[in-house]
Amino acid sequence: MDELLFELQRLEVTLHHPGVPLEEARLQALLHAGFHEVGRSGFPYDRPTVLSFLAEQGEGNGALVDVVSDAFAVRSLGPAAALLTYRSAQRQPDGTLTRHTLRSSVWVKTSDAWQLLYHQGTPAGTPW
Where is the DUF4440 domain (predicted)? Predict the structure, then answer.
């Protein structure tokens, strides 16, 4: 289970753009064709919307957000599916953390690789 946690955490953090914009082909490979999300805002987002947003971040059309994440945990949902949970926050230029969020992602193993099928962010009641 440790290997699975390490792999899914690595893939999830890749989507946070930790200082490295992602190419569209890489984004396409990470998000499953059936991907959808319920954002921190409570609004649903489909795959094309999320792909567009992430690609725009990588093109420098917006400042890359410094996302801090921790407390990763994984649960197997079967031989080819897993639930990844963690906490995240945005680091402001002064170093403070804001927008504390509890997150969950469902990853599925395809014939090629792990892909993100579903993601949800829920505002955390108190900072961690």
Answer: 25-116
Q: Around Cβ 100, how many Cβ atoms within 10 Å?
A: 17
Burial class from Cβ neighbours inside 10 Å (0-12, 13-18, 19+) for residue 88 reads: buried
pTM above the 0.85 mark?
yes
What are the E-state strand segments in the chain?
31-38, 44-46, 67-78, 81-91, 97-109, 114-123
CATH architecture for the domain at 2-123: Roll (3.10)
- Could you tell me where the DSSP H helices lie in the chain? 2-14, 24-30, 47-58
- Other CB atoms within a 10 A radius of the CB of residue 18 amount to 12
92 pLDDT higher than 60 = yes
pLDDT digits (tens, 9 = 90+) for 61-71: 555 678 899 99
Let me know: does 81 contact 52? Beta carbons within 8 Å.
no
Q: What is the pLDDT of residue 24?
A: 81
How far is 54 from 27, CA to CA, in rounded Å?
8
